[in-house]
Structures are given as structure tokens and as C-alpha cells.
Amino acid sequence: MRIAAYHRYGAPEVVGVEQRELPEPGPGEFRVRVHAASVGAADAAGRAGSPWFARLAFGLRRPRNAVLGSDFAGVVDAVGTGVTRFAVGDRVFGATGVDGGAHAEAVVVSQDGAVVLLPDGVSVAAAVAICDGAMTALPFLRDGGLVRRGSRVLVNGASGAVGSAAVRLAVHLGAEVTAVCGPAHVELVAGLGASRVIDYTREDPMRAGAPGAPFDVVFDAVGTSSFRRARAVLRRHGRYLTTVPTWPIMFQHLTSRLGRRRAVIMFTGLRSDEAKRPDLDLLAALAATGGFAPVVDRVLPLDAIARAHAVVDTGHKTGTVVITPVPELQEA
């Protein structure tokens, strides 16, 4: 089978297509022919070995695993002994977590992993976009921000994979949403259901008296703001959420518990597989019924893996970048 592999940290060009033997599932495992996989910020950080904390997960001096990619969707084509949850021919999607391996034509996963059936009517591209963005946004909003009907939420970085999912999910939860993005994405973000959209090049969303303020939750999906700035637009017991674990925010996460407003950092990718599966089912069901539509930036073949990484590196993608190791209509 073909894989996208890298053996040293660096620019997008360090990732290339190679051949590897097709893996066989062991007891309790099954193999998925990968029709789609996401290339996200975590993959770009793992490829570059930057920022510093990326190497704690991917290898201190060189990559621990040659094949990146956590989020996948495809069709089961082989099962090991003892597998009862899935059968050959099932459409599935999920995430391998820190093990990676999804940037390949096939991946072997445990039946006890973060993987569920993919409902009819949900495309494989949408499925991996759910894993890439919504699986981060949902626990941040629901568990970290306690967002509910009537909450007022500001989403910073609303055009990215996590930010666009956060806008749609916050609206689904009943919140009034103010979305922040650059001028090129105002129209797209306006279509996500936000009550108002702020172009950050024209207006400071973190100034006192900004449109929509004060907020119950400020969700910084791109890490370009700070708890200190967000306090100007947060309600008395408001929460600042961020996906970027800098030293200052980790310190503020601890010390802000003593104050009226709180800073919250969550490592959603490190949740247990048992915790992830119900969210995958929930989000897939929402997508199947039209209650949630993830944003896909573009779909590229496996041979364009370096280009996919380069798009992510720009920091200006809209939604999720998807690669297709095995085109969906191709025979296994």
C-alpha cells in the first residue's frame, strides 16, 4: 500500500509517498481502507516538530512514527479474531489519536478505539472534518464553557476547522454567537449561523463595548488573543477558552480559578476513546439530519500531501483540508 511518510522534521516537502506492506489486523483489530483523512494543525506541528511541545508527542530528536494522520473515514476490509462491533463492508470513521497512521491507503485500529459507524448520507470528507474540528469544539463549548441556550459566545478564528465547527455547534446549543475572522472569510462565516461577524482587520473584538459584549464565553480557536485581553469583554463569571497551550495560559488556567473570570485550556485529543465515541455518534447523527455541516477547505489526493501541509501552514485555511488515499469509488 501507499503511505505518506516523513523521517525528519521540516517543511512540507519532508513528507513524501512511499510503499509499505499492507498491515494485517490482529485479535480485536480491524483494517480500514482509508477513503479520507484530515491534514490538520496537529499534523503540521508533528511534521515541523514545532512548537516545542509537539516533540513531546511526536519524538524529541526525530519522528517516532513515520506516518501522520489521526482522523480517518473509510470502509472495513478485514477483521481480526474477536471483532464483534464491525464487519467487512461497514463504513466507519474515527481517530487514531497520537498513534497516527491514517495518511495511508489502509490503517489498522482496535474495535475498542475511537471509531464508530458512519451514517448513510454523510460523506467521508465531512466525517474527517467532524473529527478534525467538531471533536475539539464540542467538549470545549459544552464541558469547558458550559454553553447552553441563551449563552453569549465569541469565537475567535471562526473560519478554521475548530472555529467554524464552534460557531455551528454553539448555535446548535442555543447560544448567541459573535464570530471573528479575516476579511476574506466574512461571507463564509456569516453563513454558519452567527448573529454577527467581526472583521478583525477593521474592528477590535476584545475592546470594551465591542459588538455582542459582554460574553459568557470567549473561545479563541487559533490562540491569537489572551485571557488578559478577553477579560474586557467577559461577563463577571465568564470563561476564556483557548486551544493553544502556552505557558501563560496554563498558568492562568490554574490561577484564574481564584477570580471571577476563568481561563480554560483542554487537551481534547487526550480524552479516552470511551469518552470520544458518544461524541462521534452524536456529531455524525447531527450531520446526517442536517443539524451540523462541517466546513471542508479542499480535497486532495495522497500524492498532494506536501501541498496539503503547505495549505495548513498558511494559517488561513477555511475548515478542514482532506486527503483521499483511496478514492471512494475505487475498488479495494
UniProtKB/TrEMBL annotation:
Domain Enoyl reductase (ER), residue spans: 10-323
PANTHER family associated with the record: ALCOHOL DEHYDROGENASE RELATED, RETICULON-4-INTERACTING PROTEIN 1, MITOCHONDRIAL
Protein known as: NADPH:quinone reductase
The species this protein was found in: Agromyces marinus
